[in-house]
UniProtKB/TrEMBL annotation:
GO biological process: DNA integration
One example GO MF annotation: nucleic acid binding
Integrase catalytic domain residues: 121-259
Protein's name according to its UniProt entry: Conserved hypothetical transposase
Pfam name, any one: HTH_32
Source organism: Prosthecochloris aestuarii (strain DSM 271 / SK 413)
């Protein structure tokens, strides 16, 4: 003990205790009770601590070719079958972790590169259209009419619309065939959500023939088109039931009325 060593060299107990941060009375009490250094942070002997020789042996065993790919929960039973016991599973884990040999061993998934989806931008009219189909109330509860609405992304004007009794890709194709007028309107891109009428083969064939690029919203999300959902929601909530015969189809460029 440092105090005893200092006292043996001629120092007084009180001065030596003052240097190490305790009082002389504390040192006397430790001696009477047979205690050693009880200061906080002092080095203490841990009786159950695994000796360094055993630690080295555990690391060497775990790094053997037959054990290198096994967990401690698999290593310990195999060693017991051979009549050997080095430590418990948790103790082996702590020793391996301290030696920086505990890592995630499951098969790592191949990383996927997440890129920002392409954005549609319009600098003038008739460059990018966006469209959607929304429900419209009928006089019969549980039955609906369907409003097909096409908007110009540049000025948000409605360039075409139609009302039908069902959702169908044939109605979608007929609407765009009329709006694009056989290619006279040089549309660059058309954006929609992932609904079936928006991705029908007949509609896609028409757009491909007219060299119109097609984009859709989030995968596996059938109703997600922020460009027209606001107007569609207004129609769903506030419009009175309509009859298709009163306004079956039309174009609204210029006056920009609602359906």
């Amino acid at each position: 003990m440092l105090i005893e060593e200092a006292h043996g060299n001629g120092a007084r107990y009180s001065k030596a205790c003052e240097v190490v941060g305790i009082s002389h009375r504390t040192l006397q009490r430790w001696k009477q009770c047979g205690l050693k250094d009880q200061r906080k942070g002092s080095q203490k002997t841990v009786v159950r601590k695994v000796p360094q020789e055993t630690r080295d042996e555990i690391i060497n065993v775990c790094n053997e070719p037959r054990f290198r790919d096994l967990t401690p929960y698999e290593i310990v039973p195999q060693l017991l079958e051979e009549g050997r016991y080095l430590a418990s599973e948790r103790t082996i884990y702590r020793i391996l972790r301290k030696a920086d040999q505990v890592h995630h061993r499951s098969e790592l998934r191949v990383g996927h590169r997440h890129t920002k989806p392409p954005e549609r931008k319009a600098t003038g009219p008739n460059q990018v259209y966006t469209w959607d189909i929304t429900y419209m109330g009928r006089t019969v509860r549980g039955l609906f009419y369907y409003a097909y609405v096409v908007k110009d992304l540049f000025d948000r004007s409605i360039v075409g619309w139609a009302v039908h009794e069902e959702e169908s890709e044939k109605h979608s194709r007929a609407l765009f065939a009329r709006i694009l007028n056989g290619g006279k309107v040089k549309l660059k891109a058309l954006h929609a959500d992932n609904g079936h009428p928006m991705k029908g083969d007949t509609l896609m064939a028409l757009l491909q023939k007219l060299n119109v690029a097609v984009s859709h919203s989030r995968p596996r999300t059938s109703n997600d088109n922020p460009f027209v959902r606001r107007e569609s929601r207004i129609v769903e909530l506030f419009f009175e039931p309509v009859v298709p015969s009163t306004a079956p189809t039309g174009t609204c460029r210029g006056s920009n009325p609602s359906v």
